[in-house]
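BUG-488 | component: ligand-complex export | severity: low

The export step for iron/sulfur cluster jobs runs without errors, but we want the raw record kept on the ticket for reference. Input record follows.
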Amino acid sequence: MRELEASLLELVRRTSTEIPDDVQKALLESLEREKKGTVAEEALRIIERNIEMARRKSQPICQDTGSVLFYLEAPAGFDCVGFEEAARRAVTEATRRGYLRQNCVDPLTGRNDGTNVGPGFPTFHYDFHSGGEATVRLILKGGGCENVGTQYALPYGPLKADRDLEGCRRVILDAVFQAQGKGCSPGVLGVCVGGDRATGYEHSKRQLLRKLDDRNPNPELDRLEREILEAGNSLGIGPMGFGGRTTLLGVKIGALHRVPASYFVTVSYMCWACRRQGAVLNAEGAAVRWLY
Amino acid sequence: MTHQLTTPASEEQIRALRVGDAVEISGALFTGRDAAHKYFHQGGALPPGVSFEGMILYHCGPVVIRDERGEWKAVAAGPTTSIREEPYEAEIIRRFGLRGVIGKGGMGPRTLKACREHGCVYFHAIGGAAQVLAERIRKVRNVYFLEEFGSPEAIWEFEVERFPAVVTMDSHGHSLHAKVLEESRAALQRALGLEG
Ligand code: SF4
């Protein structure tokens, strides 16, 4: 158990202070693409420097360390209760050490007890399988970008969005436009086509676990991802909404079956500080391999 | 070219700034976010001995710790979203003679109007750049309302050196946010084949 807690503490530290390589690579590419001498280019330079400093000092990339979302893939029979207890202790300790800000507030009393533990905090998502290994992933999802997430119900008249992939393209681009720079662009879109209102958001966030340079196994969604990435960047919103060539670093789309009466398209926006990490755990709970 | 600006700033210096200008700010900087804006709006006074004349207000809830020698140190200090203060900012600019506001995401027409009338600008800092921005805080000079508002909401008086920001709303009625919104709206309508 101690071993698991130590792994989870290290997972939180890495997630909060070290940006994944694929995200850093995408940011570097966008820096090269941006027009020289513009404030957009300067914003990306500062972001680059910030990433380097956070890693070197082992301090949070952004002071908003966000919602704490754990995703677990586990063999049947895995001790979920023990896992959650270890995760809560690790989160509390990570907060004490300053890897996480005291970021969890009771909405009714306004109280923040400084532990980052409370109802729904952290959040746990499970997938069970019959294999042997357990894998834990973590996303830290900031508030500024969470606020610009949105859900559309198709058909959606104002955008002439019907219940098809073209309709999806239209509303997803509208979401990029509505967000402007407010989600600390350049950002990553996690999208779910279908599902219900709750699973739509859940599945859209899950897309943010994918590496930016992966390809969607579904060719139609793969095409849609590429189209939206290109069209989103041509809106000219740019880093921080200053205007510029990079508004999006990546677009990841998943799909869930829906009921005939509903057709939701759900968009989760992740800021440039796209913080995710994961580890494969052995039977003792030690991290044997890091995923990003 | 990056403009250098030292607080307290004069009206003339502020009027010379235009949307899109990169600026590095040095001198005193005060933080203030939701609790401070509400307090001033309800008629609250500045702490004794403090003047905002020519000063810049930073929308920021920093992480500040005491180091081994008992001195305050800002370890993470990026901007917070400014638009929440839109109902209050114009009045605060006028009442205290602020010459600048720093935040992220931009502000609305009331603040833009106050900037024009009273000679003030809105600076956009880089959202999420908590480490780079904290490094530019050379000293924590003082803190006010720490007990009443709590640490993130307190008014911190920082001494900064070459703190980087971009003018996105100037004192001549121009807003980069409004411009990017309109241009991107037109681009979206083209991409979707919709009429403007
Ligand atoms: S949106 Fe992301 S980068 Fe911006 S302040 Fe929030 S957590 Fe930080």
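Assignee comment: Attached the raw record above. The pocket of iron/sulfur cluster is lined by residues A 62, 64, 66, 142-145, 183-184, 271, 273; B 78, 127-128 (CB under 6 Å).
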